[in-house]
Amino acid sequence: MDAGIDWTWTTFPEFLDRVASLPKGINYACYIGHSALRTYVMGERAFEKPAGEDDLRAMERELRDAIRAGAMGFTTSRSPIHETADGRPVASRLALWDEIRRLVGVMGEMNAGIFELAGENVDRVPDHPALRDYHVRLRNLAVETGRPVTFGVFSRRGVPGVWKKYMDLLDETAAAGGRMFAQAHSRSLSALLSFKTQMPFDWLPVWKELRQLPLAEQRHRLRDPATRKKLVEVSGERDGRRPLGTEPKPPDYDWLLVFDTVEGPHRTVAEVARERGQHPAETMIELALEKDLDLFFLQPVANEDQDIALQIMRNPRAVTTFSDSGAHVSQLMDSSLQTHLLYHWVRAKQAFTLEQAVRMLTLVPATLWGFHDRGLVRQGMAADLVVFDPDTIAAEMPEVVDDLPAGARRLVQRTRGIAATVVNGEVLLRDGKHTGALPGQLLRGPLARRS
């Protein structure tokens, strides 16, 4: 970020003006983030203590200015896996719930803005009393402020039924007069592992020494039986590290998949290892070498059960739009959720009609985010268009590229079957290639649009 961003703003309205002035391919809209707001007002104290009354009033003032300037809403994180680079909780996690109520209440007074949050870690244990308390607070906040509340909903292997409680919360809030919607994935949320990016053993000292070498040298050493034996022997060790979010976790080989095709089915590392009579870590090394280290392994993070993902998508208070890949550009590959909906759930599974899927990807999110002039191809409305072939649209295999500022790494996943992407009347992409056009605009929130 330091290498790629010219920091020419201080306040959020100045930030929006900067985004508006930059050339861009697609349209953007922006939330104001709680941690940035809190740090702007409180400085280092934002990472140490609750806000005082003067702090709260200053945050309320800045939030009003942001919403008037065109922020789409206010976001916060309550998630214990969200930390700073030096291992401290992000600033929003130090906020008491009353601080959340005060800030969302500002948007209630203004009758503008969405509240989006990464939730509290209270759903890891089924029927935990704190989960109900959390849901009541969310319901009451939506009802008291009149503002829409939204969050991501997943199914998780450890708590397979907890997603239903969130679906119940949506209905309960609506019955009480509040607005709340869930954001869903059309596919599993998975981290991609490979020797070109990250492996689940990288923090172990023997592996760390290897992984710091150039890839060609790693390839050479991995072919040495003695080196491989040592790597396999230590692969089950624990290093005391607490993996956060999408970082590789100690491998569960029965759930670690060999990602050799997009569509699958994908075999587990454990299955292949049993066939070969090997330790699973040896199998991972061998499979990767067979592909010249250009092979991915899929580590599911959530939504392992695709039938549950389908049930969530079908809920009338859910929208298929949530992707974490922009936050984890070198770890996650879930940006293909729209393509997955079209080729997997429409074409392969016939769970939705094409018309239903297009509506799910256009009108539904436009309406929920308050863009009432978008989402339909109709005279007098704004429409960006994707021209695609329903019979061939599909995601391609991801690839690793080093094209971010300072040579930083990211994952790229392209799509086949899309002829053109048209933004604001200009062809941005043709057959997957950029035309050079930069027609994107900043889409501001409702108060800025009215003024």
Could you walk me through the main structural features you see in this protein, from its secondary elements to its overall organization?
The structure is a single chain. Helix 3 runs parallel beside helix 4 (97-110), helix 5 packs parallel to helix 6 (162-175) and helix 13 runs antiparallel to helix 14 (354-361). The two termini are 33 Å apart. It is globular, with a radius of gyration of 23 Å. The strands form five sheets. The protein has a six-stranded parallel β-sheet with strand order 1-2-3-4-5-9. With 451 residues, the protein is an alpha/beta fold. It is built from 16 helices and 17 strands. The protein has helices at residues 12-21, 34-42, 53-69, 97-110, 129-145, 162-175, 205-211, 215-222, 225-234, 269-276, 280-290, 306-314, 337-348, 354-361, 363-368, 446-450; strands at 32-33, 73-77, 114-118, 149-152, 180-184, 189-193, 257-259, 296-302, 318-320, 385-388, 394-395, 399-401, 410-412, 415-416, 418-423, 426-430, 433-434. The mean pLDDT is 93. It has two domains: 12-188 and 304-450, Metal-dependent hydrolases (TIM Barrel, Alpha-Beta Barrel); 191-302, no CATH class.
